[in-house]
Every structure is written in structure tokens, then in C-alpha cells.
Amino acid sequence: MNHQQQIERMTPAGAPARIGQGTAVEQSRAVAEVQAAIVVAQQCPRNIQAAVAEMRESCRQPYLADRAFFRFPRAGQTVSGASVHLARELARCWGNVQYGLVEMRRDDEYAQSEMQAFAWDVEKNSRNSSTFIVPHLRDTKKDGPVLLKELRDIYENNANNGARRVREAIFAILPPWFVEEAKDLCTQTLRDGGGKPLNLRVSEAIRAFEGIGVTADRIETKLGRKSGKWTDHDVAQLQVIFHSINRGEVAAEDEFPAPRVTADEITGGQQGEASEVRS
Asked: Is the pLDDT confidence value at 64 over 50?
């Protein structure tokens, strides 16, 4: 067996027999980048006090607080928690943290992608990663799972599914006390409403929901009280729901079911009155 035959035997079917110059350069660059990140992290260790101060300042900003939480339906219930937007901001504040999402392999025959989400505290050498399969499908209420064929649709589907894993990877390497304080501060920022009076925030919330087809009485039904008795917590909750609806995480019909109409309401009570007359 000559040298060329040995190479062909060792090379997997469908794989190139040699590494191209571009691939070799990229591999070398990736190794050098990792080594440089470790050196920089050791030379410039994080200042925890400064990281906490920056986190607190960020969480006081309404822009971040509005995007700090998510909601989505699962098994007939609503799941909520801290969003990937908050996770990324906390990673920035904490410093010396790398994170990302990589498509390791795409299988068009089986319509799925093998993905990896990771987060790495370079300074402490603490790393969390997960490998998972993302089917090239999109769930729809009308037609059920729909196969994705366009490259853009597949890319967006992979990114949306991977964002949740990236979020969990980041939270796994950050100190729990750091994350919990950030969530509390974002919640407080939502309740404060940027210093606006409560009655003004209530009016703005009602107008915002009317813009997406949700009437005030449906909101009052969900909260269990009239708008005049809404609290800061109620308005903060409505903000989270509103942004989740706009992001497509939940549907307005799921959060605010339309009131059921009884037969008496349809007939205006005439049927009951006619029964009394006949009796």
C-alpha cells in the first residue's frame, strides 16, 4: 500500500484529504486567541467591587430592566425567568468571561443541527458547555411542526434555541449572589417606572396593550382588580408580559383569554324572561 492509499484509507468518506490553508490559519488563530485570553485575564484580574457597582448601575436602567425577564407557555403553564439579555450584560460586568454558540454540524438529510453553547470564566478557568440537537422545525398552532428549508429560517431557529442554552451556561459560571441581586434590582427598576407617577404608568400600560388588541377589561380580569387599584408590582408584571408578547415568546390570547359569553348575555336575558312568562 503506497502513501496515497494510506491517506485515502485514513480519511473519512466525504472529508477533504488535506487541511486547507484557510482552515490551518483559523485553527492557529483560535489557539493563539485562547492563550492570549488566559494571559490577559491573569494580568488584569477582575475587581469585584467595580463589577458589582457596574452591575447595579446597569440594572437601574429601564432599557435593560424591560428586557431582563422572559415568559413563555409550557404544558399549559407559563414559565418565566431571567433572559439572555440580562445574562450577557452580567457577563460583561463581571469581566473575563467568554461565551458563545457554535453550530458544530448541520445534517440536511435528517434536518437537524448539532449545536454547542458555552460560557468560560477565563480568570478562574471555570467553564460550562452543553451540546444539543436542534431540529429544523418550527411549531405552529395551525399546522403543527413545519419543516424549515430556507437558510435564514434555519439560522434563526438555531439561534433562538441556542440562546436559552447560552443563558444557562452564563448563569452557571457567575456567582449566584451576583445574579440574584441583579434580578432584584431589575424588578425594582420596573416597579419604579423611571420615577413616573403610578397613575401615568397605568395609563401608558393600558394604551400599549390596546395597541396590540388587548382591552383594559381583559387586563383587569387577569389581575383580578380594576385599573385604579393596580400596584407597582402589577405594572411591572404587565411590562414583562408586553415585551414577551412583542418578542413572540407568548401570545396575547394565552396571557389574556377573551371573556366567555354566556347564552343569557347573547339573548339579553330574553330567553329566561320567556320561560318565566310560559310558566
From this structure: yes
